[in-house]
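Table S2 (text version). Query chain:
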Amino acid sequence: MAAENHTEVSEFLLLGLSHDPELQPVFFGLFLSMYLVTVLGNLLIVLAVGSDAHLHTPMYFFLSNLSLVDICFTSTTVPKMLMNITTHSKDISYMGCLTQVYFFIMFGGLDNFILTIMAFDRFVAICHPLHYMVIMNPRLCALLVLMSWCVMSLIALVHVLLILRLTFSLGTEIPHFFCELAQVLKVASSDTLINDICLYVWAVLFGVFPVMGILYSYSKIVSSLMRVSSTANKYKAFSTCGSHLCMVSLFYGTALGVYLSYAVTPSSQSSAIVSVMYTVVTPMLNPFIYSLRNKDVKGALGRLLSPAASRL
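Corresponding structure-token output:
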């Protein structure tokens, strides 16, 4: 098929997770349920942190931002997938695809940054408790989050601008349920060397270094706790870190699984199924991890929901 200029390509075809029409209602019910749970769970975390004065601390400020980003992250991909299943269509417009690429990169990167910032917050709280409120002051917390948004917005924009220079064939099929950057580059008709270099550089800079930062923070935390004689203080410190470690393990573990699946198997379909874990399942589980393991969050949720329940 002859390659056409990208200005003549009006749409792509998203192949989704399966071609079996009997599975489409199952996928619709499953993903709709997970999406609603994700939005409701993370929204409750945001409302609980905002409404409870006890949670107006740096740790919960970052948690509420993470929950907000998770809502946006999931909303970038799942609603379009549900719409395509409902309409029995696989189409996504050219600009719609670029929009998905932009917001997926931005919100995925923000998840990465905020998890790293939360590790630094725990490091300061445990290793430098006397200076915690001085170091993690409201201005620094807001600046860290704002810088994360600005950096990821710029990086996502660079990737989209680089895609604009590529050409695609008419009727291009993307073997995924959304426009993932790596898959979009694979189906391009023109040379993607510059795009690939930027993708690998981005993966190293914003994959390896944040992980190294998290590992360094927790190595210092463990070293500091080893010198604490009180078992109760050790337990309290570990409990505040446990939820964050669970989220870090889920996010990086599932993301690593996706990229390993790209290397191990040539099947893009299997990679799409694996990517469901970090694009849908992880954002859905984060509110449960924090609410079930954290007494402060459970108490705030109870106070938030009790007035609503009394009005019913």
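Notes on Table S2: The beta strands are 3-4, 11-14, 91-93, 168-169, 173-174. DSSP finds eleven helices and five strands in the chain.
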